[in-house]
Amino acid sequence: MGDIEYLDLVDEDDNVIGKEDRNIIYEKELRNFRVINIIIMNSDNKIIVPKRSGNRRIFPNCYDFSVGGHVSS
What we know:
By secondary structure, the protein is mainly beta. The protein has one helix and six strands, in the order ββαββββ. It has one domain: Nucleoside Triphosphate Pyrophosphohydrolase (Alpha-Beta Complex). The mean pLDDT is 93.
């Protein structure tokens, strides 16, 4: 088991209202935390859309953003 990753919890105006362990956020199915996503386009202006591994806990075998992550607290 690794280090605990804390994420800020925010209200509908993006004001920080608390923080929580990332694992707890997913267990409780909370959606009020910050993430970043990047969409990559090739030289023909076509969007590159990768498919997630079937081993992923969240949305296995689904299409996703090219780059994404959580914003730590």
